[in-house]
Amino acid sequence: MARTHGRGGAGIRKTNKKGATKGSGAVRRRGLKGKGPTPKAEDRVYHQKHKAKQRRERSNSGRHDATTELVVGRNPVVECLNAKVPASMLFVVAGTGSDERLTQAVQMANSRGIPITELPRHEMDVKTGNGMHQGIGLQIPPFKYAEVEDLLADVQQRNETGMFVILDNITDPRNLGAVIRSAAAFGGHGVIIPERRSAS
Predict the structure, then answer these.
(1) Is-above-0.70 flag for pTM?
(2) CB count, 10 Å around CB of 172?
């Protein structure tokens, strides 16, 4: 006969619990285990930065190759051709009114063996991101920027008093071009722009 304790309960305690009676069975340890580094915000599909990255990629998909740049406007294109900047393509918008500069650009491109492509206005607008191209664009290799330290070292080697123009938040390429031309005209040694939030 089983021995009872207290109020008539059985000597053996019954329980409905399954598994180990002691410890968590490593459940807590697994719960504390890391899941690796947190992904970047732009890699998380629910994050705003991911959506902004997708919008950028969509808008850039119609633009020229990322390994090239596009010089637009009749005077800048002619000046690039005059300076013999290496170019891979001249774009001309269909139906653009011809003038002396446009004719000159086409003739120079022909003489240098640069292919000329005619394209619709909306395609050129997509390539440039705006409609300020005057119906012409020249595809060239990307500009190679120098480091500030290299500019300063170059001035020191020449034993000259350096003149640099430092710009911030200049986002219009035409304004940047005007400043660069002015700096060159006054004998400046360089124009310094930030890596981000600036025209290039």
Answers:
(1) no
(2) 11
